[in-house]
# Entry
Amino acid sequence: MPDVWRNLREAACTRGLLGFACSAQPTSSRLPFHAGSAQVQPVQAGIPWLGFVVFPTHRRVKARKVVQASRRLGERYTAWQRGEISFAEFDAGVQGWINHVRYADSWGLRRHVLEPFVF
# Structure
């Protein structure tokens, strides 16, 4: 029976039906290698991971995540000023974002993003 499965897998690999690159030797970890999206780059270029770009010496927040957070916090600030949400809800969003970005080197970033919300 295992030969049947091996033959089916080989046929699917040669036709490109599995959606990932197949190797002749099965790996022990069973993790697929996605040839189209895998790129070899030096570590000094940074590794994107969970909203951060991780470098050997430091971490940065991805630029698009900063833009998203700025927009979201601005919308929540406006909603608080209009009375649509309580200050506690607005503060919870700010504290959540601060808690996320504290894992990066982000003192200046926090100051820059939170500057418009000075009371």
The CA atoms of residues 20 and 37 lie 10 Å apart.
